[in-house]
Amino acid sequence: MIRFENVHKYYGAVHAVRGLDITVRPGEFLVLIGPSGCGKTTALKMVNRLIAPTSGRVLIDGTDVSEMPLVTLRRNIGYVIQETGLFPHMTIAQNVALVPRLKKWPRAKRNERVDELLHLVGLDPAVYRDRYPRHLSGGQRQRVGVARALAADPPIILMDEPFGATDPITRKQLQRELARIKEQVQKTIVFVTHDISEAFLLGDSICLLKDGEVVQHATPEELLRSPANDFVHEFIGDEAVSRQFDYLQMGEICRTPLPTFPADAPDWQIATALRKAGTAVGATIDPGGRLTGIVQVIPHAEGGNRTAVQRRPREHVRVARRDELVREFFPGLCRTNRAGGPTGGAVDPGLVVVDEQSRPCGLVSYDDIVRLIAGLVTGTAIEETSGADPEDESTAAFFTRQRVKGAVAR
After folding, report:
1. What does pTM read for this prediction?
2. Half-sphere exposure of residue 341, counting CA atoms within 13 Å on the CB side?
3. Using CB atoms within 10 A as the burial measure, which of 3, 154, 351, 392 is most buried?
4. What is the pLDDT of residue 47?
5. What is the mean pLDDT of the chain?
6. Which residues pair with 175 in a beta bridge?
7. CA 232 vs CA 164, 229, 247, 325: distances in Å
């Protein structure tokens, strides 16, 4: 466990870190993030004593790092930086095995560990172990840097913007690799970045700093749902649009009630009840209240003002449990048949949300999601009639749809 206790750092008159007071639990992946000059790298370097605090304490498992032998401290902390820091005159195997060699591991154990870690970071040992850093791409060197940090099996890994110098495609690949690796190695990791997307992808918790102070320290979900102030909201920005879907459950956005009827209820009774309820869609249920299908009032085939009741059994209805995530169903909702067609003139109502006992809770349509996040995207509420002709929707609603689709596609 890492503990910062009221840590301050001054550089002359500059107060770089102000009263930092946070705990990193064993096995936690903490992301330090914020604008340039916020103190995130300074805080990271206090853990392995590359920088000493002006006041306060940094503790590892209850021991002040200032009281630990420096060599012992650093050999037990993995460290990855933006430019990897690989020694150019050493082979990849020698670079990875550096700390195990300093700790006097037997040669056979070192070689086995090198091969194991190269496999872990996606590099074939037979191809790469005898190469030199100059023979590798930037992304490959970063992978070797991660392998070297893990080599002596340290309980703590510090990573200072390790992917910042890579191109966008390589960066995404490395992020995915690290997300996979962190699940396998179960280390305590402190990770510095300026990329909020990277923070949400990797972090168990995120500590957002500004001017050396903690603005908010929370899980990614808490940061999205309850930003502490306008600065947090603005810093997250459009990332909230796509990340919101990582945490929202269907039950949280289910706002359209769904009248229920016995499965054997006659059409006239259903049509009358739906008309009185001001809706065109209802659900049929069995004696235990479980969903058996939906019923929908549609224009009669003979035209005029006459209507008919269309029935669809459950196997032909899109159903979601209320505890399932919105993101899993968004592509299907994007394909909602809002204008009718193959459903015999009926507008596709969307998804039926059910509880754990399969009892209907209500409906969720694509329009519901658009309205939900419209304020996040445009800063205004969008009034829109469910099932309206796309040509009649407001300009704000149209642009919201395009941005939501783009955000979720990312």
Report:
1. 0.63
2. 7
3. 351
4. 97
5. 82
6. none
7. 22, 6, 18, 24
